[in-house]
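Form 12-C: Joint structure prediction
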Amino acid sequence: MVTDLVNTNELTKIDPVFGQLSFDNHEQVVFCNDKDTGLRAIIGIHNTVLGPALGGTRMWNYSSEWEALNDVLRLSRGMTFKSAITGLNLGGGKAVILGDARTQKTPELMKRFGEFVHSLSGKYITAEDVGMETADMDLVRTVTPYVTGISEEKGGAGNPSPITAYGVFMGMKAAAKYAFGTELLEDRTVYVQGIGNVGEALVENLTNEGAKVFITDINSERLEYVRDKYNVNIYEGENLYSEEMDIYAPCALGATINDETIDQLKAKVIAGAANNQLANELKHGLLLRERGIVYAPDFLINAGGIINVYAELENYGKQEIVRKTENIYNTTLEILQNAETNDITTHQAAFEIAQSRIDARKTEK
Ligand code: NAD
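Section 2 - Result
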């Protein structure tokens, strides 16, 4: 992978933005740089046909700028289809901040980032993602109104993660209904990979229903905390993909379903919160279908968070948030059945419905 931006030979070989595979007709990509605070961020605005591009900000210690660019492009594209399939009047966008959230995130850096968001005049609206907290969004709110996911004390809808987890739980139940004939998860073996904000809340939903839960994370303190709080098992093995399980729930980062893992997978259902779980949507979607593994499309079942933050823009309350999130169960079941009827992957089935909503709005305009 190319990391040295000064190497002009390499630059001529790979086009940095428009030539990226993940660049899929994005409307705008904004690079934000501030020497004083150390801010280096990229805002990706994929599509604004249905409304302003709303999507969270991720802070991650990327191994290269290319990795960060690829991530933001894939994530912002995913947001377009997530909002479209959920029936929200929002476009797709996302931001990444390059750096370690635990050591490099400062109030000054967050405010400076907020100023960059503000400079886009509402075309992009931010929220939290990996490495961000509600308190960070409160800081961004001091410099721009174009932010959601702010705390309830400050008039926001609060942390979206529990509602995201609830939506994932609904999607998982629908996939279980399709795969096993019952949506009850009691005694089902579920591996939750990544027990951060969403993963932990998913573990809570699962243990309340009596599922047998195994957890993994790169953060051993969190593992112990979640194990003790919910009385679940820490997975101690080397390779969770090859373990016997009913359901694999990826709740860390994307692309865990890839050339290396797909042949080993023993799960019958994949349903998790992580964005962009399929390293290659077409290829890996098809392989999952061939292997009879029921895949609940990520951008469909992890939409609880966007439903939650959308409430801040549309002024609807908790009851409507929960109603819309519970509807993920029905939509997931419909998509799984639709994929079977039309002999396409579940990802394609979800994607086509989302795309048709965008196309219909374009013709109205
Ligand atoms: P988080 O940062 O709170 O948690 C992520 C967890 O994954 C951390 O505990 C981290 O240590 C762990 N992790 C990282 N790499 C790992 C690996 N290789 N193996 C195991 N664990 C690993 O993030 P979150 O808010 O819980 O989000 C989780 C995923 O869900 C992300 O992909 C995010 O984009 C997606 N998502 C989140 C929301 C939301 O409302 N927070 C909404 C939609 C989608």
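Section 3 - Comments
The chain has two domains: 25-78+90-158, 162-356. Residues 25-78+90-158 form a domain with the Rossmann fold fold (CATH 3.40.50.10860).
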